[in-house]
Amino acid sequence: SFFQGFFLVDQACRKQGGGNCQTQNIVYFGHRFMKSDAAVGREDLYVTFKDQDGAWSKPLNLGNTVNTVGFEISPFYMEEDSMLYFASNGHEGSGDADIFRSRRLDATWTKWSKPENLGAFFNGEGFDAYFFINKVDSTIYLAKENPENNYTDLY
Q1: Residue 36 pLDDT
Q2: How do residues 84-116 score in pLDDT, each as one tens digit?
Q3: Phi and psi of 112, rounded to 5°?
Q4: Which of 22, 115, 130, 146 could covalently link to 100 via disulfide, CB atoms 3.0 to 4.6 Å apart?
């Protein structure tokens, strides 16, 4: 699949710079084969916005604070605190891919805080990704490589 993960946010949210928005008209995604002058690595994270007529904007690369020459996949965005969670093998980590978070700093959607590794509780020596927080009960879900069999399990 070209799309590694996505979520939707309201277009009005973008114009207001974030905040409490309905999830419906913005898509974040990781794309493996997108050719773009803005591409940083082999799989970057992008955002696209749906306008009033239902047309989607040209995908906007999130920039080189988030994206690296490695891969960035499985985005999850928390509107309440403008926090993006994603997996990467290009930022400093402990395994094949680790889960990071970065805060959106302004309304451009291209300026982000330095990605922070979520640490050993969420990241091991293998592949860790697809971090998700259920907003109803705050349960966290993620995919983590099981060191006993090298398969990725859901937690």
Answers
A1: 62
A2: 999 999 899 887 899 999 999 999 999 999 999
A3: -135, 155
A4: 115
